[in-house]
Amino acid sequence: MLNLLHRAAAIAAGALLGLTTVLAGPAHADAPTPQTDITGAAACVAGEWVVTWTITNNWTEQAKVGKLTTAPASVPGLDNGLYLYRRSESGTVGKNVFTQVLRGSPPSASVSFVAEWAKTKDRDNTATVQLGQCDPPERPCVEKAQARFHHEFAIKEGEAKATVSLDGDVKLCAAEPVTLVTYFAPKPQFSVPQYAFAHQSATISNEDRTVTLSAKLPDCYTQADLFFGGEDDVIEEITEGGRRYDDRKLGSRTGLGARSQGKPGWYNGGAKGCHQPLVQPVSQCDGTVDVNLSNPGEQTKYAVDFTVRAGDFTRTVTVAPGQGDTVRVPAGSGPVTVTADDMDDVTYTWTRPGSCPAPVVTVENDCKTVAVTVTNPRDAVPARATVAYGAESKQLTVAPGASERALFTAGEATEATVTIEGREPVTVSVEQPDCDSPGDGGPGDDGSGGGAGDGTPGDGGNDGGLPVTGAAAGVIAAGAAVLLLGGGVLFLVARRRRITFTP
Q1: Which of 332, 356, 401, 472 is deepest in the core (most CB within 10 A)?
Q2: Are residues 260 and 337 in the same domain?
Q3: pLDDT per residue over 412-460, tens digit each?
């Protein structure tokens, strides 16, 4: 029985030894076939795909990379000719890790290569990773006060021009309007009131990060402003104590305007006033001067104060845009001077209009005296005249609507000359009347006169003088005789017929 147990134990031990030999036998077999493997993993990070490629080498020799292809882009560090880590002595496979960053959300990424050892190759090394949309995370936006800009501002060729840009890769929480506006101004320095002339607005946004603006300048004194704000923020009229753009102007030292770097975004200047004062003096026949004042022009925005001076006369008149007025300067005031802002002084001296009627000159000669009369029209200046007759001359001053005479002793001169101040001399004829006494035919021989009706003088005359005789006396005498004869005939007829005349 005991022997039987020993034999059974011996058989069992032999069987166990045989089993152990069978199990240990493979440890003495050859190493596995040389092989490489590639895997890929991808992650979307901040809008970019980060792909990690892992290549393992299970052989005890380094594997060389060949016939490498990558899509859609190369893999940094993975190139043809690269040697891959080998399996360690402990049996750990060689591991090689490469990182690839892809932008633009490609649909996939892939790598393919051939691993080469000294005596063999592994051609089956391909891996593909599916990608797709990879959006960046929503950026936090910046509020109005935190946004930063830069700008350019210039005045040239009759325009104000500006460019404004958003700085940095930031996102605005709200769009930022900006406006360029130009004004009429009363002076080339800041002054009021001002009136809007032209403007342009634009909006800076995350899509439109740079804007360009321009606005025409008026052809006169002007102001231009570049400010943060839109069309609704344009001040149409800048007045004393009214609204201002203040530190909203780009380039300001403080406030919203200080967010933009650049030269000051404002301008004052111009070469002439925004009005066109005109003066037109007109002389009148009575010596007054009508000074016509006007303030015309399409760009006229301001009233003009005209001051008219002449001797002791002074008057200031304010003429509104597009209006006119007239100042009458009294006669005899002297030279007229008109002044106004942005206008050269106008100086004028009264000149007699050519249409004024001239004084009238008449002459009378009664053989003893020559009278020259000068008559001045009613609406005229006093006429200062020099009257010359023969060797004499006399001065006259004739008021408007009046007459004055210059008297001279009658002589043989047949003309008189009248020179009126400011006019050409006038020469008038002086008629010579028959200045002899009526004819007496000479005294008779004895003072009784000549024969009746024969027109011959007598032998003498007397101091008392006789009626004029001659042909005229004969006619009268004949007429008287006829009348007397007719009366006698009528008397005789009346007596025969016994006719009675009743008185």
Answers
A1: 356
A2: no
A3: 899 999 999 889 999 999 998 888 755 444 444 443 333 333 433 334 3
